Amino acid sequence: MPKDSLTITDNRTGKQYELQIENGAIRASELRQIKVKPEEFGLMSYDPAFMNTASCKSKVTFIDGDKGILRYRGYPIEQLAEESNFMEVAYLVVHGELPKKEELENWKYQIMHHTYVHENIKKFVDGFHYDAHPMGMFTSTMAALSTFYPDAKEIFDPQSRQLQTYRLIGKVSTIAAYAYRHAMGFPYTYPDNDLSYAGNFLGMLFKMSEPKYKPNPTIEKALDVLFILHADHEQNCSANAMRSVGSSYVDPFSALAAASAALYGPLHGGANEAVLRMLKEIGSKDKIPAFIKEVKEGKSDKRLMGFGHRVYKNYDPRAKIIKKLADDVFEVTGKNPLLDIALELERIALQDDYFVSRKLYPNVDFYSGLIYQAIGFPVDMFPVLFAIGRTAGWIAQWQEMLLDKEQKIARPRQLYLGYDQRDYVPIVRR
Ligand code: CMC
After folding, report:
1. Whose CA is closest to atom 15 on ligand 1?
2. E-assigned strand segments in 40-165
3. DSSP calls for 326-359
4. Residues of the chain with pLDDT > 90: what percent?
5. 5, 132, 240, 418: which could join 128 in a potential S-S bond, CB 3.0 to 4.6 Å?
6. Domains contained in the chain, CATH given
7. Ligand 1 pocket by C-beta < 6 Å: which residues?
8. Residue of 268, 328, 352, 404 marked catalytic
């Protein structure tokens, strides 16, 4: 008779243990009962980089990496990208259900009426050097926002959490725009609440002397879809940072700054920026074979940026959608000349045994940068655009963690392999 349990024999003692299997997992803490002597700490599982550890139960996002499936709250990403819009998806990700008409109206109203930031934020952003990376400005300014909203510390008050949610989703786009305007040396543009979320963001970025900014509908739609595609991605590095830092019960602005810092790295949200730099470095299609050779030889740790994923071992479904979206955008902006290099690079890589055998396919970042660049974003703004969409997911993950009775402050164990006790040696005797 099959049982949902796992029997372990400890060959050191010959003892047997039966551990329950629940949702396809055993509880790592159950291993603690396995010990040779009673005073021992007990067995731990060693899992650097959480390769096979579920750190939480979640109902937000489902990914089947082998099949290339991504769903938010059960809804396939393809349907959401095709039929929904970012405001609706952000509501879905945060609240768990698609909004009814009035709920959506209220959500949009609240978010768009929390897009303004305190005037001092302008002075804060002014303090950055002219060539400061926008992601550094974004991350620090998000942390600074916590000082403007001390009420955000009330993390167990549902109304306060709701208010911080409006503020966060509303203000991330303003702060992202300020970072851009500062880098360009342009005056800051105030939000225009009559526009859509993406339209207003475009206005805050690109509005100059015209009295009313009118976004190009194709660009506005493309940006909205890109925000949808980035809204959540279950337990990735930045979501894990949001949960981990949030588990100390710090306010959500500070936790989000930590998540944003995690996103900045080139192996995570910084990859879209790295892809563009890589395509530029390759320069022309005839240089691709030499570049691929270098990657395969592992020279100077070079990687094919925008390829590979911890979870997807198939084509990233977001990359498929973005590839299609690129055609719409290029019709308005003209084709990004790097597109041909990207397409050829993908073609060659997907025929090469190195990439095929390791199941390395294009991920979300491979094509997104080409669109961003065609729209007119400088390369170092790309991760900030990722952060805007992902804010919805960070909030959902943070809230789920806070309300999960099983969660505690995140605190992994270690296998200590350092010195045993030794006596201090004064400097003259070393
Ligand atoms: N180019 C060349 N080789 C690669 C690449 C790549 N992009 N990605 C993985 N590999 C190789 C890697 O060298 C290793 O080979 P071997 O088994 O011979 O040592 C094997 O494939 C497995 O790689 P891994 O580093 O163990 O895989 P991981 O799950 O730890 O890393 C990853 C996932 C995304 C960090 C990695 O694929 C990578 O660095 N990709 C490039 C950066 C990138 O595009 N990041 C964006 C991820 S998607 C957006 C997001 O969610 O942030």
Report:
1. 358
2. 61-64, 69-72, 75-76
3. HHHHHHHH---THHHHHHHHHHHHTTSHHHHHTT
4. 90
5. 132
6. 1-46 (no CATH), 58-406 (1.10.580.10)
7. 233, 236, 267-269, 271, 295, 303-310, 358, 360, 363-365
8. 268
pLDDT value at residue 38? 96
404 is catalytic: no
Q: Does residue 222 contact residue 325 with C-beta atoms inside 8 Å?
A: yes
Q: Whose CA is nearest to atom 52 of ligand 1?
A: 268
- Please say whether the beta carbons of 231 and 389 come within 8 A: yes
Structure pTM?
A: 0.93
Atom of ligand 1 nearest to the CA of 275: 44
Read off φ and ψ for residue 182, nearest 5 degrees. -65, -45
Task: Verify whether residue 268 is a known catalytic residue.
Answer: yes
CA pair distance 86, 195, nearest whole angstrom: 13
Which numbered atom of ligand 1 lies nearest the CA of 308?
Answer: 37
How confident is the prediction for the chain on average, in pLDDT? 95
pLDDT at residue number 336 = 86
- Asked if 361 and 345 touch (Cβ cutoff 8 Å), the reply is no
Among residues 70, 13, 113, the alpha carbon closest in space to that of 315 is found at 70
Give the span between the Cα atoms of 118 and 65, in whole angstroms.
Answer: 42
Asked if 64 is an active-site residue, the reply is no
Tell me the longest C-alpha to C-alpha distance in the chain: 80
